[in-house]
Write a structure and sequence with these properties.
This protein is an alpha+beta fold and 193 residues long. It folds into two domains: 116 residues; 61 residues. The chain has five helices and eight strands; from the N terminus they run E-H-E-H-H-H-E-E-E-E-E-E-H. The protein has a five-stranded mixed β-sheet, sandwiched between helices. Strand 3 and strand 4 form a beta hairpin. It is elongated. The two termini are 21 Å apart.
Length: 193
């Protein structure tokens, strides 16, 4: 195993070890990268807004509950408002946690191009990392989506969706949210396709 791309040294040791353990003896790394967390998590921005709305709603419910409690009104109304505030706080925590998990998943994902295949190592939901390998024959239907920033996605294949109107596949597999997507595409075509 030979590593020709020096960026592999920029990976966290656990990710670097996971990648090198995946390589076969006659295989060497040509390129290593990770998704850009800023692009990967771009879809989570509305979640932060929803979380803030949840907290604001919880604050309103708590203020109303306190006001009702101060006026010695119905305890049922106070409990109902307090319960609504609690539910909204829990909802906000769930939304914020999900948004942060998306970013953490991006930071724990590794993409690599070797002399024999393209490799995607994703963090586990439970258990060990999930590794996908794509050999030259698997890359024949490769598509590239470039963003104005020069980053983008290289999709190797996708799973069909039940929704014929869906623009983005339900499950797209490949290198998503990579910087310099055309350079990565060139390396894939040069070494594998």
């Amino acid at each position: 195993m030979k590593i020709t791309d020096t960026t592999v040294n920029l990976l966290e040791p656990a990710l670097r070890n996971r990648l090198t353990s995946e390589l076969k003896p006659d295989e060497s790394i040509v390129w290593v990268g990770q998704p850009n967390p800023a692009h990967f998590g771009r879809g989570t921005k509305p979640l932060y807004f929803i979380g803030l709305l949840e907290i604001a709603g919880a604050g309103v419910c708590a203020m109303l509950a306190w006001r009702l409690f101060s006026n010695d009104t119905s305890r049922v109304g106070v409990l109902a408002l307090a319960f609504m505030a609690f539910i909204q706080v829990v909802g906000a925590i769930v939304v914020f946690r999900f948004a942060m998990t998306v970013r953490r998943r991006a930071e724990s994902t590794v993409y690599a191009i070797s002399t024999r295949r393209a490799i995607v190592i994703e963090p586990p939901m439970v258990g060990s990392s999930h590794v996908r390998s794509y050999e030259a024959k698997d890359l024949e239907r490769m598509t590239v989506r470039e963003r104005p920033t020069g980053g983008g996605d290289i999709l190797f294949h996708d799973e069909p969706s039940d929704d014929p109107e869906r623009v983005i596949p339900a499950s797209a597999f490949g290198f998503t949210a990579v910087d310099n997507v055309r350079e990565v595409e060139r390396l894939l075509r040069e070494h594998l396709v």
